[in-house]
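Sanity check

After download, print the first record. It should look like this:
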Amino acid sequence: VQLQASGGGLVQPGGSLRLSCAVSGTTSDYYDIGWFRQAPGKEREGLSCNRTRDRGTFYVDSVKGRFTISSDKDKNTVYLQMNSLKPEDPAVYYCAAVRAYGANQYNWEYDYWGQGTQVTVSS
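Expected structure tokens:
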């Protein structure tokens, strides 16, 4: 399983970015994709994920209502639409994959990781 995250960049506060995670070597039928971020000096945090077992998506409170995870099965790509970006959102954003129908995603324990894309929020 390989993942390639892209779409990061510089945006003003209140702006939007859409991150992409191109997945190869598997499909969403077998793996759930999650988005994470890590800011300098902070621990990596899980933000949003698909949960096939729940037939839905999950968001942590800090991004709920602002970020949206979606998938394009034909392109085998998962997106993270980020709106209303705040000064506390800058970080390296990662996508990761974990076997679907499992329980590890509930603990944010993922098996495969992309290389990360930098998001900067600044005026």
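If your output differs, re-run the checksum step. Summary of this record's structure: The first strand starts at residue 2 and ends at 6.
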